[in-house]
Amino acid sequence: MTDVETKAEVSPEALPPDEGSDPRKRLAPALGFRGGLRWLWAQLTSMRTALVLLFALAVAAIPGSLIPQRDVSPIAVADFIADHPLLGPVYAAVGLFDVFSSAWFSAIYLLLFVSLVGCIVPRVLVYARALRTPPPRTPRNLSRLPAYATATLQTDETDDVVRQRTVTELRRQRYRVIERDGTVAAERGYLREAGNLVFHLSLLFLLVGVAVGGLFGFRGSSVVMVGQGFANNITQYDDLSTGAWFSDDQLPPFTIAVNRFRVAFETGPVQTGAARLFELETEVTDRPGDQPYAKTIEVNKPLTVDGATVHLIGHGYAPVVRVRDGNGDVAFSGPVVFLPQDGNFTSAGVIKAPDGRPERLAFEGIFAPTARVDDRGPRSLFPDLIDPALYVNVWSGPPKTETGEPENVYSLDTAGLTPLKDADGQPVRILLKPGTSYQLPGGKGSLEMTGATRWVKLQISDTPGIAVVLGSIGAAVLGLCLSLFVRPRRVWVRIREEAGGSRLVEVGGLDRADARAGLSEDVADLVQTVALGAGAAAPDRGEKENQ
Amino acid sequence: MNLEYYSSAALVTSVVIYLLAMTAHAAEWAAARRTPATAEPAELAAEAVETRKFAAVAAGSPKSGSATTASGPVDREDTNQTRLADLKIELWGRVGVALTVIGFGCSVVGVVLRGLAAGRPPWGNMYEFTITAMVLVVAAYLVLVWRTGARWLGLPVTLLAAVGNGLSVTVFYVAIAPLVPALHSVWFVIHIVAAAVSGAAFTIGGLMSALFLARQRAERRGSVTGYLKRLPTARKLDLYAYRFLAFAFPLWTFTVAAGAIWAEYAWGRYWGWDPKETWALVTWVVYACYLHARSTAGWRGTRAAVVALIGLASFWFNFVGINLLVSGLHSYAGI
Ligand code: HEM
Q: What's the whole-model pTM score?
């Protein structure tokens, strides 16, 4: 803090030498325990520490942007660990995959905010006192000030009248003015420090808002087949992450029927296949028994229901299939979600028929919305549903006893299964187009593709405290502008009797922040206004700038 | 032959003209190098007058013209040689500025045609962002030249504009395509415009900080020569850099906030530590460091200027490096 206060006293133009020495450095803590604590506190709340902590924050955030992060891209983290058997565990141990929730990152920003509080509270008090303090007394020698101008008084008015005019003019320019010992002292720009305090205080509120969101918020997602629906119930989520103080009954009991999904992709030569349109037509029911109403969800136009926000964050394809087992019974029927693997929606997935008898069946492979098979294998050439096809391998095995353990629907656990081979001993590869079916060799059953449909991934989230966050940012920007653009300035005016009997008006000015200029022009203007009164001839103008 | 083609042609032309302008300014400084090496007091005084004009304008004072009558030092030893050198300097300087104006015209045409061809504001990818930012940088520079005669920025600005537009048309170039749905948002437009303006101001502030460092070193060694001699004093440069950065910082704060609002609409979270977001924050924090450094004893001047340059580096790394190196939700470089 001392840094700033001393700065205010010197002329803004007179930058002190670069390598100033900090007196605090010499204050070794040979002061006993309490003295030591006080010393520590003074260190922590010093401007220098704030600077170092800010820098540390910037540096600490960098690995988080270059190394994959677990809560942004868990798969990339897994890949990274697999690719770097030596580095991976080390990174994991020091939290480089979770930088923004790591102990060291948290320590930096918490220390920064402690420092901020320690810094702001005394400054608020100082400011409150400054607000009640009148402008400082007039220096004896005004010509020493950074800006100084004089003019000979052109009227016969008394000093009192001239001073009154000065006061009026300065008040008009929104100075706080006081007359003292026959001089006028004025100050303005109190809002600068206020702005600075508001800015720093808003940072605290920002932190509070973010913390509220983190503690009470939730965000989850669910894959919903087009034509089906979603009920906001914890069992319907594929994944759900919640704040520490979140409780399940915070989930509003709405349901969403997903009726239609319109998509369009770029067919032109540039950025071919890039998404151009997503529109999801839904029917929303706020709570059971309410009247449903139609709503469209688009990218950037989420749906808000009962405090929760529903975003469309992904989509893909689901081949619709029917599996018959060796007995000729339908062992599975319906759409199966395949996950897109590339920009053209070459999608991978597994069709499972665990109820097949005498043997259970499973199919693993690829779905392509615009299919192409060549020596590079089956893949999709375009993301839209133009010429879909399904390519799968077949597995079979004896029925598995139900363990009740959850199983990943997107991957196949091949334990207890054997790949089905054809007469030549090659693994069976099936290629299906909509409306076709395939009889498995050895009478093991059949697979039929009846069509393909789309699924969408909905994200449901609520971040309480977002209003606090937004409000603090708004206040911060406002405070910042005040703090950077308001010019705190002091002006003094004195009327002096000259040797020849004429009277001289002297104006001296001082800017307390170096953000702005124009001081000498304003001082020159003021001296004219004061010396001339209204509408007199130009005075002799002695202007001088002490830089 | 279509608008898109003419847009690229205009931008390529601008690169060539900026390069020529840069050459002219280089010649200007080369001519200046041959003038006597000592910085006479009279010259410093002349500088003070000139820079005061600058200061008045930057403050938005209506009286910017009031000091124009002040002329350079008259009591200088007027040998024929120095007069010739002065003429040369002046000539090359004027040529440089004139060429910059032409180059600027070309790049404005390039950006406008690009927008017309695309039927939307031309800020959809890194290519479009960079050419827009360059227009803003050169516009700010030309305003400074016009109002305050800050021709001393000519060399670095034309160099930057040539490199910026040059990289754009060669490396970053993508053909016109409609925006992906995530970019259909008013917040996106606000966010990008604010980013481009604050980027331009950060860049000019950074150039000034770099010039400050060079000039200050020379002043310390007591040998201010050539190009450096024609710069404002180190103290002034520091102040001008501060003005640009102090303007850019609140705007950048707003940029990040607008981005967060857009992210809330697009992805349902206002902050997700995406690489782009992370670097926006890093840039923000570094400039907060700069502002703190300027009011901390021992950090003013040199160290603050270095922090400002680090801030500039992180700004441009975010816009170029992150787009090219790291894949994130924001990677809309399109290449
Ligand atoms: C959360 C981290 C912080 C951020 C992002 C931050 C940011 C800023 C910014 C942008 C300014 C420039 C505005 C101005 O010049 O008025 C500033 C000024 C200032 N900050 Fe901070 N600050 C932080 C923490 C602190 C702390 C911990 C202290 C106490 C040591 C502090 C003390 C000050 C002071 C005294 C000024 C005024 C400097 C002047 O008058 O030129 N700040 N801060």
A: 0.82
Q: How far is B267 from chain A (nearest CA, A)?
A: 7
Q: For residue range A191-209, list pLDDT tens digits in order.
A: 999 999 999 999 999 999 9
- CA pseudo-torsion sign A10, A13, A17, A18: positive
A418-A420-A425-A427 Cα dihedral, nearest 10 degrees: -100
The pLDDT value recorded for residue B35 is 58
For position A508, what pLDDT does the model report?
93
H/E element, A421 = none
List phi, psi (to 5°) of B179. -75, 145
Query: Cα B178 vs. chain centroid, distance in angstroms?
Result: 29
The answer to whether residue B305 neighbours chain A at the CB level (below 8 Å) is no
- Residue A437 contacts B, CB cutoff 8 Å: no
Q: Select from B210, B197, B296, B212 the least CA-distant residue to B250.
A: B197
In residues, how long is chain B? 335
Residue identifier of the C-alpha nearest atom 32 of ligand 1: A47
Count of A-B CB contacts under 8 Å: 175
Degrees, nearest 5: CA angle A239-A244-A245: 115
DSSP for A149-162, written as a single string: EEEE--S---HHHH
Q: Tell whether ligand 1 has an atom less than 6 A from the beta carbon of residue A484.
A: yes
pLDDT in tens, A91-100: 999 989 999 9
Backbone angles phi, psi at A342, to 5 degrees: -150, 180
Q: Which residue has the higher pLDDT, A431 or B181?
A: A431
Find the CB nearest B177 among A99, A274, A466: A274
Q: What is the DSSP letter of A132?
A: H
Dihedral, A420, A425, A426, A427 alpha carbons, nearest 10: 10
For residue B259, what are the β-bridge partners? none
DSSP calls for A111-123? HHHHHHHHHHHHH
Structure tokens at B124: 């959809």
- Cβ burial, residue A76 (10 Å; 0-12/13-18/19+): middle
Q: Provide the token pair at A181.
A: 């010992």
Is the distance from CB of B290 to CB of B266 less than 8 angstroms? Answer: no
Nearest partner of A260 among A300, A237, A228, judged by Cα: A228
Ligand 1 in contact with A203 (CB < 6 A)? yes
Tokens encoding B140: 């700010």
- pLDDT bin (cut points 50, 70, 90) of residue B51 is very low
Tell me the average pLDDT of chain A. Answer: 85
pLDDT of residue A457: 92
- Quote the CA–CA distance of A284 and A296 in Å, as a whole number: 10
* Residues 84-113, chain B, touching A (beta carbon < 8 A): none
pLDDT level of residue B121 (50, 70, 90 thresholds): confident
Query: Minimal CA–CA distance to A434: which of A369, A478, A494?
Result: A369
Residue (of A201, A3, A207, A6) closest to A116 by Cα position? A201
Q: Which tokens hold the place of A391?
A: 């390519």
Q: How far is CA A367 from the centre of its chain?
A: 37
Angle at B255 between CA A66 and CA A111, to 5 degrees: 60
